[in-house]
Amino acid sequence: MVPIRKLHTLGASFAVFLMASVSTTSLAVAQAADTPEATIGSLNAALLGTMKQAQSLGVQGRYQALSPVLAKTYDTALMARLAVGQGWSSLPPAQQEEIITSFRRMMIATYAKRFDGFSGESFQIVEISNRGTADKMVKTQIIQSNGKPVAINYLMRKSGPDWKIVDIYLDGTISELASRRAEFSTILKSGGPDALIASLKKQGDKLLSGS
């Protein structure tokens, strides 16, 4: 089961983030391999399957099951760069790579920790709209077992041949990237990039320990 409080925690601590149509979408469209719908559909298929096997998999098993899909679905390199901000270009390549890797691991671990059961949830794509000249906003709903919808919106951008998620909006308005930018800024000011890397690794470790 994935209650609303866990979805808020997912966004606040990262990711999150977070779904669209798996069973029946309100947009009856064919999903080509390089469409925003297909990207969200792949994410949700993996989430739904993992939720249904959550107890037998455990947190480590859920992490392994979700890793390849989430790594492909999210542009974590861009998200990490945007969250760090203007100071990114001044970091050595090795530190940039460590931040990206630690950020991605923490994000996937957050999913593995939070999506720990299934109680009849379903997902719907509500609307896809242009955002600026290049991005798409995919508005979705999680329909809980009690019938109440929860809005989860994805900002998506073309990366090579694929559409990837670059931000998530819980309740349709709460930007994950903005939350991360504030968190990263505080850590970087107090301890620099090494402190940020250590913080991301610590968060990932805690999530994967099951605590």
Helices and strands in order, then pairings?
Layout: H1 4-13, H2 36-52, H3 54-73, H4 76-84, H5 93-114, E1 122-131, E2 135-143, E3 149-159, E4 162-170, E5 174-175, H6 176-208
Antiparallel strand pairs: 1-2, 2-3, 3-4, 4-5
Can you describe what's shown?
The protein has helices at residues 4-13, 36-52, 54-73, 76-84, 93-114, 176-208; strands at residues 122-131, 135-143, 149-159, 162-170, 174-175. The chain has 211 residues and is α+β, with helices and mostly antiparallel strands. The chain has a 5-stranded antiparallel beta sheet. Helix 4 (76-84) packs across helix 6 (176-208). The longest helix is centred in the C-terminal third of the chain and has 33 residues, at 176-208. The two termini are 18 Å apart.
Name the helix and strand elements from N-terminus to C-terminus, one letter apiece.
HHHHHEEEEEH
Strand order of the largest sheet: 1-2-3-4-5
What's the gyration radius in Å? 17 Å
Total helical segments: 6
DSSP summary, beta strand count: 5
Describe the structure using short key phrases:
alpha+beta; 211 residues; single chain; 5-stranded antiparallel sheet; 53% helix
Summarize the structure.
This protein has 211 residues and is α+β, with helices and mostly antiparallel strands. It has helices spanning 4-13, 36-52, 54-73, 76-84, 93-114, 176-208; strands at residues 122-131, 135-143, 149-159, 162-170, 174-175.
